[in-house]
Design a protein that fits this description.
The protein has 1 helix and 5 strands. It has one helix at residues 59-70; strands spanning 3-6, 10-17, 20-27, 49-50, 56-57. Strands 1-2-3 form a 3-stranded antiparallel β-sheet, with no helix packed on it. It is globular and about 35 Å long.
Length: 72
Amino acid sequence: MINVEHLGVETVILLELAGQHLHALLGDAASLEEGAEISIGVREGAALFFDTNGKRVDPVKASAREEAVYGT
């Protein structure tokens, strides 16, 4: 975990995952500290994806594009 921002009833964390930065919005998670290693899970349909310009990306299209580019 790179950064933790406690915002009252919510906490925003910045993670590094597979060389990529990921922001996560959590409920009140006061016990989290910068530098901690954590496990995460995401409810299906709960994740939002954005491109490098901050524009929201449709995850289905993003997945298809990644498959075409990387063959995954």
